[in-house]
Specification:
This protein is of the alpha+beta class. The chain is built from three helices and four strands, in the order βαββαβα. The model has no long low-confidence stretch (mean pLDDT 95).
Length: 75
Amino acid sequence: MLEKKIRLNAVKDVTEFVKAAEKCQYDVDVFYNRVIIDAKSILGVMSLDLTKTLTVKYAREDRAIENVLNKFAVA
């Protein structure tokens, strides 16, 4: 599993992230504390505390999703 830390600051960011995740043919999950959300669920992602850093785990290298993750990456 590959992992990236991101921060989504606006509804527009969430929408862009979820649309990119929906295009993946494999699981993409968002983790915050002990909560795990399917990244393809806009309601699930919106239910998270977006003021916090989120961890995204995905199954394999994929330039399309990684470009979006890099846009929202936290150092």
